[in-house]
Write a structure and sequence with these properties.
The structure holds two protein chains of two kinds.
Chain A (H helix, E strand, L loop, with lengths): L2 E3 L10 E2 L4 H10 L2 E3 L27
Antiparallel strand pairs in A: 1-2, 1-3
Chain B lengths: L11 E4 L2 E2 L4 E7 L2 E5 L10 E6 L2 E7 L7 H5 L5 E8 L11 E9 L14 E7 L2 E5 L2
Classes of the chains: A alpha+beta, B mainly beta.
């Protein structure tokens, strides 16, 4: 888990925070002193849908 | 006239890792030993020896229930041991600015509401026990 400082009471806001223990982290999270860092997605972007070209209309030759 | 005085204005009050200096209006950090009497017959005055450390830190703090403020700092600590640090000024710790540290002090109680009409709410809290040390560098 990566935590970021929210309150200047525990550090410089925006900097990464390393808690001494998980219990500390939970207490500080609950109190609004720190927050979880946004999860950076590693998923690949979805592929573009393949669109079949519309069938060409065949000209009517008056048959 | 005193040649050196100190204007009360601690530069750092830490409860655990939380800096509460700007919510604190009074701090008393007492390094103390239990007093054990060892007076015996034949003596003409009582005498004592030191027993166990019996340290305390008392703080007066403005109460605030906002996120990351007094209540959020103290409420989860009731009934637990925590480290409290107080430094006379905000300069670096040194022999003339010794940071006082109480490690493993118990916060046994917290007045969760202390309200008086027309006044800012404050709470007096006391940390008891723990091991005293002084940081000078």
């Amino acid at each position: 888990m990566t935590y970021l400082v929210v309150s200047r009471r525990v550090g410089t806001p925006g900097e990464e925070y390393t808690p001494a223990s998980e219990a500390d982290a939970q207490r500080l999270l609950a109190g609004g002193f720190i927050r979880l860092a946004d999860k950076v997605s590693t998923d690949k972007p979805p592929k573009a849908r393949k669109v079949k070209p519309a069938p060409e209309e065949t000209p009517d030759h008056g048959k | 006239m005193a040649s050196s005085t100190y204007l009360s204005n601690p530069g750092e009050v830490l409860i655990g890792v939380v800096d509460v200096t700007d919510q604190c209006t009074a701090a008393t950090f007492t390094y103390e030993f239990d007093t054990l009497e060892n007076t015996a017959f034949g003596q003409t005055a009582r005498t004592n020896v030191a027993g166990l450390e019996n340290n305390t830190v008392t703080l007066t703090m403005y109460m605030s229930y906002a996120a990351a403020e007094t209540y959020a700092t103290l409420q989860p600590l009731v009934g637990t041991q925590v480290t409290v640090k107080v430094k006379p000024t905000d300069a670096a710790a040194s022999a003339t600015n010794p940071q006082q540290v109480l490690t493993g002090a118990l916060l046994a109680s917290l007045p969760v509401v202390n309200a008086t009409l027309g006044e800012l709410s404050t709470v007096d809290i006391e940390f008891v026990g723990g091991v005293y040390s002084e940081v000078t560098s």
